[in-house]
Amino acid sequence: MTGLKRTTEKNLMVFSGRAHRQLAEEVAYQLGTDLVPMQAYEFANSEIYVRYEESVRGSDAFVIQSHTAPVNEWIMEHLIMVDALKRASAKRITVVMPFYGYARQDKKHRGREPISARLMADLFRTAGADRLICVDLHTSQIQGFFDGPVDHLMALPILSDYVRQKYGREQLAVVSPDAGRIKVAEQWSDRLGGAPLAFIHKTRDITRPNETVANRVVGEVKGRTCILVDDMIDTAGTITKAADALIADGASDVIIAATHAILSGPAVDRLKNCAVREVIVTNTLPIAAERHFDKLTELSIAPLISQAIREVFEDGSVTKLFDGKA
To answer: Annotated catalytic residue: which of 86, 91, 202, 272?
Structure first.
């Protein structure tokens, strides 16, 4: 008999870029391992260099990086990390993006525009990624941009469990900030005991980013505590206008629940000054200490990401984490 036989052992290794290392450390801790040590720095001309300080040959590699500001710098570091793993003979490379950069550029609104979310997927595939794990993509269609498996995780269980425990005894209504997120609001309603649904009818000028007009509330919110749900809070203009519209329509209180706390520019001041009781977010993105405020509650997404990584590593089911709805 010719050849050699060997029983292979799978080796899970977790890597982190510098954008949000605290989250990656939480994920590694939940998995019972440590982050692989890595050198990373910039040359004088701002080019990024990375090198792993342990062998990664044959490993099942999970590379975590959240695309926070400066977004382009951290995306580039993420790509270089993937390339380094591919050239060091990692067996499988899974890119973990708690926040997917450029996700809002998922279609063309006007002629001569890019579809940058698709470009992102192509870049990571070319760099050597075999699989993506993402949390609450701006639109689900982005899953189809990547030529390989995509595990689309939802922060809904974490956020809704917190809301149910704290506000479950109040008369609730689940409100979508626009008609496009009604399906997500329906899932929230199911998890909050069938709370009624409403949405904000709004208009947007496609030539002016981060600006919308909340026209009117569609649905019954009078006398109810409204749970205003969205995937991200960037400058907070849209979400605070929606909160004001709900209060004007007779809502007794407004709670904001969102996955990604980008909190650009005037966001913190707007949220502090609007008629909202609490702003609940996850730590998919780092929030600087000076941008924390009294109304803000930050929940950890690390348990969800670590569970998904474990299921992928053990060839299990990620869908089961969401009752078969992922």
So the answer is: 202
The pLDDT, as a whole number, for residue 214 is 54
Q: With the CA atoms of 181, 185, 186 and 187 taken in that order, what torsion angle do they form, in degrees rounded to the nearest 10?
A: 110
Angle of CA points 99, 100, 106, to nearest 5°:
140
Closest CA to 162 of 238, 255, 273, 274: 255
Question: Bridge partners of 197?
Answer: 174
Task: Give the helix/strand (H/E) hosting 50.
Answer: strand 48-52
- Listed as ranges, residues in the chain with pLDDT below 70 are 1, 7, 202-215, 324-326
**Annotation says 202 is catalytic:** yes
Cβ-contact 92, 53 below 8 angstroms? no
pLDDT at 215: 64
Quick: pLDDT tens for 292-321: 999 999 999 999 999 999 999 999 999 999
CB 177 within 8 A of CB 202: yes
* CA–CA gap between residue 107 and residue 205 (Å, rounded): 16
What angle, 0 to 180 degrees and rounded to 10, lies between the N-to-C axes of helices 302-313 and 21-31? Answer: 50
Q: Which two tokens stand for residue 192?
A: 């909050």
What pLDDT does residue 216 have? 84
Give pairs for 264-268: CB < 8 Å, separation 24+: 264/69, 264/210, 264/234, 264/235, 265/235, 266/235, 266/236, 266/237, 267/233, 267/234, 267/235, 267/236, 268/236, 268/293
